[in-house]
Task: structure prediction
Amino acid sequence: MQILHGISFMVMAAVVAAQAQNNPFTVGSLRAGPGEAVSGMLEVPAASDPGSQVPITILHGARPGPVLALVAGVHGYEYPPILALQKLRSQVDPQGLSGTLLLVHVANLPSFLGRTIYFSPIDHKNLNRVFPGKRDGTTSERIAHAITTQVIDRCDYLVDLHCGDGNESLRPYLYQPVTGRARLDAVMAEMALVWGLDHIVIERGRPTDPAASIYCSTTAVTRGKPALTVEDGYLGTSDPESIERLVRGALSLMRHLKMLEGTPQRVSSPVFLDPAQVLTSPATGTLFPRVQRGHYVAKGALVASITDFFGRQIAEVRSPFDGVVLYVVATPPISKDQPVAFIGAPRK
Result:
């Protein structure tokens, strides 16, 4: 009886999934039927400050399957993920798709159009620090609320796509969250391996409260949905290699999730980085990086020096342990407490 009950439950679940796939998929005012691709704007209304729009594509497959959300442009100066999703949209045919692919092309349109690093030109907030957002908050908080309610709450899996901002010289890596929930962690570990990047940061200690999740990917994880954050690209450039890696990673993950036919790529010799630490500046002034992305440094090695605006050295930043430079800020302006570099220690 237990076996029959289990089979009945699986059949019922399959029927429910099929019925859901036969229905239109909606995000805001956008509506895509089975086998259709629809693009348009998710509106973020004005309040005490200006509103915004979020360009979104729904690729609603002809066959049942999971809902995968890929989010680009949370930081608007990070271009390779934005361009990668444009390419991906043209390569995925919803008629051959199982499940639904949601593409958030540019989450932070004010930052993208304003060419700003980290912060919105409207409310001066970092969108990736205000999730899950507020319906009645500032522009960034309302954008986060719209993405949370219309995208994250609608998906089964999520990948937040980033790269080195206009000031960050970055080598490709991704963050694999570890929550202590065995099943969720196992799914995310597999997602990390099939994305195809060989440097994987083990991410511990992220928020656990869904009402105060702070980060885009963590918002999904706190709701029990597997998620990754990918970093691929550097210094605000639009380099073709990063764009192609991002497209390949997305297609590989979709094959892993059985959304597309084919065999996913899989990293054969991953480098797990645990611990990893962001090094911040002890002073405001002019930054002189002393290392390069991808280089290995010893504990105590000089990572960067800082001068005042007259050229007098006022501070140094040194590595807290042996590790690899995942990114280093490579442009001169630096403010106190802002990131200087990110160092990861390969697990032994």
User: Anything to note?
Assistant: Residues 2-22 form the longest helix (21 residues).
